[in-house]
């Protein structure tokens, strides 16, 4: 498979390494200083572009890739509120393809499935309050993390007593999400159900970005053969 990389930071370099190890070809690498390469024949030859950039750049990158007929796999977060409807229309009515995930880690996919199942069980036990905490490196600008929002939405689908998520809230009807930024933490997500009697806690702790990078390449392999708006629920059947 021919892959283009959009964004060549730590994640982009790790994705490149894993893609090459899996026998793929990197035909184009686009970063902040060579945006003109979106118009190159090399970029247009890609089967899939893997995009990890900043929230403010992601949507524009999708448009540039789609204009060249290139499918996109993206792990960028922070753009959904402003451009989510436009992306859904492009993929459902406009024939474009985007595989988007807030987190590509296989472990997080498993963790998300456990989270939804646990929330379904805990819906029967209103004595337990639930909260969510995410910790990331100091370079991560958006909060809460896209993964935390996805986990929160999974809880809200199953737990009747929470109406929405919010940061820094004391409203018992809202699911509280706290964020912490420290050091070079790859990502820690903790969900806690607390009662007067006891506490139930589940945590996913990423040791490095390698799991995210492998998942992104697996998503690209899947995307090559599929179209539309794709997610990890399409890739991982739990």
Largest beta sheet: strand ordering: 2-1-3-4-5-11
Return residue spans where pLDDT drops below 50 for at least 5 consecutive residues.
none
Helix count from the secondary structure assignment: 8
The averaged pLDDT comes out at 95
Element string (H = helix, E = strand): EHEHEHEHEHEHEEEEHEH
Gross morphology = elongated
User: What composes the largest sheet?
Assistant: 6 strands, parallel
Backbone structural class: alpha/beta
Portion of residues in beta strands equals: 15-25%
Helicity, in percent? 25-40%
CA radius of gyration: 19 Å
Number of strands: 11
Straight-line distance between termini: 27 Å
Description of the molecule:
The chain is built from 8 helices and 11 strands. By secondary structure, it is α/β, with parallel strands linked by helices. The strands form 2 sheets. The protein has a 6-stranded parallel beta sheet, with helices on both faces. The protein has a 5-stranded mixed beta sheet with strand order 7-8-6-9-10. The longest helix has 17 residues, at 106-122. The model has no long low-confidence stretch (mean pLDDT 95).
């Amino acid at each position: 498979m021919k892959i283009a990389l959009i964004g060549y930071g730590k994640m982009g370099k790790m994705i490149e390494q894993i893609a090459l190890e899996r026998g793929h070809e990197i035909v184009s690498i686009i970063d902040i200083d060579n945006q003109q390469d979106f118009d190159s024949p090399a970029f247009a030859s890609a089967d899939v572009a893997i995009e990890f950039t900043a929230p403010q750049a992601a949507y524009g990158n999708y448009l540039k890739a789609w204009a060249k007929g290139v499918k996109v796999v993206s792990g960028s977060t922070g753009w959904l509120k402003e451009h989510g409807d436009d992306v859904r229309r492009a993929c459902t009515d406009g024939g474009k393809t985007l595989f988007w995930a807030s987190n590509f880690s296989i472990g997080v996919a498993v963790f998300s499935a456990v989270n939804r199942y646990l929330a379904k069980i805990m819906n029967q036990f209103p004595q337990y309050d639930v909260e969510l905490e995410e910790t990331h490196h100091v370079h991560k600008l958006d909060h809460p993390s896209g993964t935390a929002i996805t986990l929160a939405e999974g809880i809200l689908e199953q737990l009747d007593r929470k109406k929405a998520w919010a940061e820094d809230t004391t409203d018992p009807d809202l699911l509280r999400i706290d964020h912490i930024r420290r050091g070079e933490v790859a990502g820690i997500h903790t969900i806690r159900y607390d009662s007067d009697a006891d506490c139930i806690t589940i945590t996913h702790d990423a040791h490095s970005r390698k799991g995210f990078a492998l998942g992104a390449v697996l998503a690209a392999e899947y995307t090559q053969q599929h179209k539309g708006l794709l997610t990890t629920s399409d890739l991982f059947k739990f």
